[in-house]
Amino acid sequence: MSGDLQRVELDDDTDDASRFGQSEHADARGEDGPRRSRRGRVVLGVGAALVVAGLVAAQAVLDARERDAVAALREVRGVLAPIGDSLEVAYSVPGLQWLELPKDDDVLLLVTADGGTGSHLRAVDAETGVARWDVPVGAQVATAQGVQCGAGRLDGVGAVVACLDTDGGVRWDDDGQSERRPATYARVLVHAQDDGRQVAAWDLDLTGEGFAVLDGQVAAVARDGADLVVTAHDLATGQQRWRRSLVGAGGEQAEGDVDAYYTSVNVLVGGGAFVVSAPDGSQVVVAADGTVLPPTRGVNWVGPDTRTLVVDINADDADGARTALVRDGVLSPAVRGTAVSTGVDDGSFGDVVFTSADGLTAWDATTGARRWATDGDDGVATYHGVLVARGTVYGWGPSGLTAFDRDGHVRWRHALPDEATPSNVSTDGERLYVVVDTSDGQEPSVPEVQALTFDGEPAGRVAVPRDIRWLSPINDRFWGSVVTDDGESSIAVLR
C-alpha cells in the first residue's frame, strides 16, 4: 500500500514537472526524493508559520486588551499618570493654605501665603504649575487655618470659587498652645474659575469660624455658648437662606474664651451635605436644605470623592462601631465596623463600602448587605485602605498588601519588613505602587516606592528625590513635602 502511494506521488510530481517544461533527466539524477523532502519541509514550514501567526495574533489580542484595560483604568479618578523608574519634582508650592482639584484635571485651584504680600488665590496648570491667573484674597495673618475657600457654581457665571477673607482664626502662641484670634472683619469673595474675575463680595458675621460652599450657598459655623450655629447664605448676595442650631455640639467652651488649647470648629462639604466638626472631634451632617441627618453625631469621616461621604458612628452595643454613607444628602443603611478608606475604585466590584469588621468586610453600599468578609485567619489583620481595580481588592496596612478576589479569597500577599509600614498604595494602570515609610518614628526619611504587577510580582523600585519626606497620591500625581538644606519646606508635585 505504501508503494502505491509513493508511485502516485511520483506520478503527480512528474506530471507537474512536465507541465513546467522540465526534462525526465532531472528525475534520473535522483531529485525526486529531495523534491518530496522539500515538499515535506514546505508543508511543515507552513504549519509552523500558521502556529506562529496564531500565537502572534493571540498575543496581539492580549496586548490590545491590556492596553484597553490600562486606558480604561486611567480614566478613573485617583489613578496616577504613567510612572517610570524614577520620580522628579515637577514644581513646588510654598505656603500652601488650601487646595481644590476640579473635575478638569488640567487645572488646580489653590491658595498660597507669599511672604508679606498676603494670601493669593491661583489657578495653575496641573502639569507645569504655571499660574493661569492670580488674585489676592486675604491679608497675611498668622493663623493655623489660613484662608478658607470652596468651589461652587453661580447662574450666569458657571464655576466659581469663594474665599473667606478674615483676620480671625486659630493661631499658636509662643508656648505652642492654640488660641482663638478674634476677627475684626470677615467677608466672602467670589471669583470665576475661568479667569479669576471677582463676581461677588459681601460681609459675613464676625463670629463665623468655619466656611464651606455647596449648591449655590455658603454655610458658616459659629459658637453660641455650648451650641453650634450653622447659617447658610446665598453665594451671590449673602442673603440668609436658613439657620440651624446644633444643641450641645459646641462643648463647654463659650464664645470669646481664649484659653489654652482652643479647639476650633469648622464645616466642610462631602456627600452633597455640610459636615460640621465639633470641638470634641465628632461630626454632624447637615443636608443642603438645613436638615440635620441622623445619626446626629459621627466620630470620623472620609470623603473619597466630592459626592460620597463615609461616616463612622458611635455604637454602644456588642457589635461596636458603625459606618454609613451619605450621597446627595441621603444617608445609607449603617453597616458594622469602622470605615476603611478607598483610594481608587474602578467600579469592578459594583457599589461597595469597606469596613474593618472581621479584618476586612465588603458591604453593598445601597442595601447594607454583606458581600464578603476575610477568612478567620485574617481577622487580626489591620487594613488602613483599599484599592479596587480589575475585579480585585487590594487591602493595605501594617500587615502589608493583600489581594482579594470577588469572593474575598486571598489571591496573593506582599509582605514588608517588620520596621516598614505602607503609607498608601496607588496605581498608574500598569503597576501597583506601595509607598513605604521607613522612618524610625523620630526623624522623617525619604519614602520608598515599591512597584508590583497586578499579580503581586516585584516590578522594581521607583527612585525618589532625597529631599522628599512624605509621598501621597492626589488626583493623578504624587504629592510630597520638599525639605531643603536650610530646613525650609514646601509642598511639591512629582512626576
Automatic annotation (TrEMBL):
Alphabetic keyword roster: Membrane, Transmembrane, Transmembrane helix
Gene3D superfamilies: 2.40.128.630, YVTN repeat-like/Quinoprotein amine dehydrogenase
Compositional bias ranges of the Basic and acidic residues kind: 16-35
Region spans: Disordered: 1-37
Plastid in keyword set: no
UniProt-recorded name of the protein: Pyrrolo-quinoline quinone
Segments traversing the membrane: 42-62
